[in-house]
Design brief:
Blueprint (H helix, E strand, L loop, with lengths): L1 H23 L9 H14 L11 H14 L3 H16 L9 H20 L14 H4 L9 H6 L1 E2 L2 E2 L9 H15 L4 H11 L12 H6 L7 H29 L18 H7 L1 H16 L5 H10 L6 H14 L1 H13 L11 E3 L7 H4 L1 E3 L10 H19 L6 H12 L13 H26 L2 H11 L5 H15 L8 H13 L8 H6 E5 L8 H4 E5 L11 H31 L3 H9 L2 H50 L3 H18 L7 H44 L20 H37 L6 H10 L4 H8 L1
Helix pairs in contact: 1-2, 3-4, 3-5, 9-11, 11-14, 11-15, 16-18, 18-20, 19-20, 22-23, 26-28, 26-30, 27-30, 28-29, 28-31, 28-32, 30-31
Amino acid sequence: MEEEDQRKVTDLVMELVRRLLSQQNPQNPTPNHPHFSQSLRYAFRILSSRLTPSVFPDSDAIAESIKRRLATQGKSSDALTFADLYTKFASKNGPGSVNNKWAVLYLLKIISEDRKNAVNGMDSSVFLPNLGLNDDETGNDSRVFNGKENRDKGLKNGVLLVSKGPENLREISFREFENLVKDENDVTEEVLVRDVLYACQGIDGKKVKGYISENMNSFPAEDVGTVGQAFCAALQDELSEYYKLLAVLEAQSMNPIPLVSEKASPGNYLSLRRLSVWFSEPMVKMRLMAVLVDKCKALRGGAMAGAIHLHAQHGDPIVHDFMRRLLRRVCSPLFEMVRSWVLEGVLEDIFAEFFIVGQPVKAESLWREGYRLHAGMLPLFISQSIAQCIQRTGKSINFLRFCCDDRGWADAATEAVAAAGVTTRRGALGYGETDALESLVIEAAERIDKHLLDVIYKRYKFKEHCLAIKRYLLLGQGDFVQYLMDIVGPELSEPANTISSFKLAGLLESAIRSSNAQYDDPDILDRLRVKMMPHGTGDRGWDVFSLEYDARVPLDTVFTESVMTRYLRIFNFLWKLRRVEHAVIGAWKTMKPNCITSHVYTKLQRAVKMQFLSTLRRCQVLWDEMNHFVTNLQYYIMFEVLEVSWSNFSNEMEVAKDLDDLLAAHEKYLHSIVEKSLLVERSQTLYKSLFVLFDLIMQFRSHADRLYEGIHELQARTVESSSNSQDKNKPRKTKDKSPEPGSWVSEGRKALTQRASEFLQNMGQDLGALATEYKSLLEGFLALLPVQQHIDLKFLLFRLDFTEFYTRQHANV
């Protein structure tokens, strides 16, 4: 259907052109004639033009204008005839009538004005061929326009001949000169003006081609986002103003350009010089818009706003004002996103234009992974620090909303708006108001972050939970740890696969009730649990036992799974150290001087006595060295590492301004403990050497127990041997029982002494070998301490070797 309508329109235009041409020259109007084809293209170019008349489309007003014009020209009868015809024309409605009556009247008026202009001297070649002009209408002076034949009469050998008659005025000479110039030039100024106006609409003229409009039309119209849509709307408004100017200029171009001989008049005619003045500012804007469209084709959102912002840094006031006006429109959606995010925590970004990107995550990962900055979408007029502040503020609101189930942030946001002096309505912020934006963001961030920390500290008792972790996972509650180790020791000595976690949980509960831990908050104690780590077939309970702390939402934002894994590593190290300390103390309880040792010493022979004293002395000296090492290491860990790190962490908690500061302070606290406790990667050699020393100390505990068990057995055999000697002098009432073969008593006192000598000799050798290995490992451990990066590890060396005993010993070797 559309193709059929288009064909009808084409046929009507062709018929109109043919009739107009037939009135001037009946021989021309054949479709194959070049003049007909040229006129037809010209007609289509006019009909496809986007120019609109500069008058209001009122058919009655046009009709009145035509009647007044006819009346002023002395054609009253024609005016009455026109009024009668117009009344009949206007009353026609329905099928077969003309809908756009105003356009028909306007066309007739323009054709009439064209005839008048032709009479007054305008070259009719710039328009469609008009109705024929007879000599009666033009008068005798029309010889200037009567064709080349008349003009040739005044020319001789290229010289203009002017007679001295009264009609040969100076202005006629100028007109003859003008016609001569028109004959010598293919393009007149009127044609160029009209072509320029067409080109400015994107319509190709005879000599001028359009470019700007084609470049504008190449901008993608769909899926450009809200910022792109605002950019398109701003461009459309500028183009609308541009087309209004073209409409005014088109109206002026209809007026003839005065001749050189005529006096300068302020008439609304349009020459190329005047056109260049009119287009001086619009062309700057159009070229700039063309550049912006070309630059922003592949951009969106904040990246598009930043690219446009680069062109606003210009010294030309016209360009600067135009770009600020354009950017205020373009950045309006972006500033609205900032306002919604900072004050409401709402991320309205359907087309992925904002410099903050959200992604679905679990509640414990909301703060760390839920929102991130997209540097590619950050416009240049928003600094990195303000962007981070914007991100943190909206993130704090969502953290309070989803993780803390809190609504107090709304009051904080309202206070921030009042303090910043801005309104909460849409469009309150825009480009060029960076100071107001920064003020709003800073005020909102300060109040919302403060409210968030208050909720974390007071409602969720963050400090109390941190202290509980220090007491139980970092073994800071001494009485609880000591009692727990005493009651779980026998159970943990069994193979790991035979230990019941329920029984260990009961022992943990007993340790809590039997220590000052029972006075802690029940919520904290409920979070403390026993955890058995994965184990192999040869592992003992000591190797797999650990404690864990259940950090729930929102505390699991700080105590994440990876953080609790590091706490577990620290607990295992401290638990091993406490076990070694417990073993050293247990060895001392076994080795302390007692009457049994003294009694055995008095009953032994001289040679065995010296051997006995040598073995005891070696055991005591080795215990002293191990006790010195364990005591100073324990002091270093508990006071130089844990307490100092806790003190620094407490101070940083007090000055933290937002949750990021709190997370950074806790991360620093945990890293300090891990680094000073030799748990970092670069301290693995030192860490392994330390655990070998721990194993040697546990071996020493077993050797010491075996030595004193042997001494106790020797004392018992000595007493039994003495009793048997006394019984020999008494009469036997019953038959003695024969002693067991192979026992010390059965072999008599001599055999008992020999067995004691062998036992002490073997123990002395074992202790000597253990002492040698321990000394070698300890010297290697001390040699590694000075090369460690952390200064506190060098202080550990000073504590272990404050008398320079090991240094002098190593020098002597």
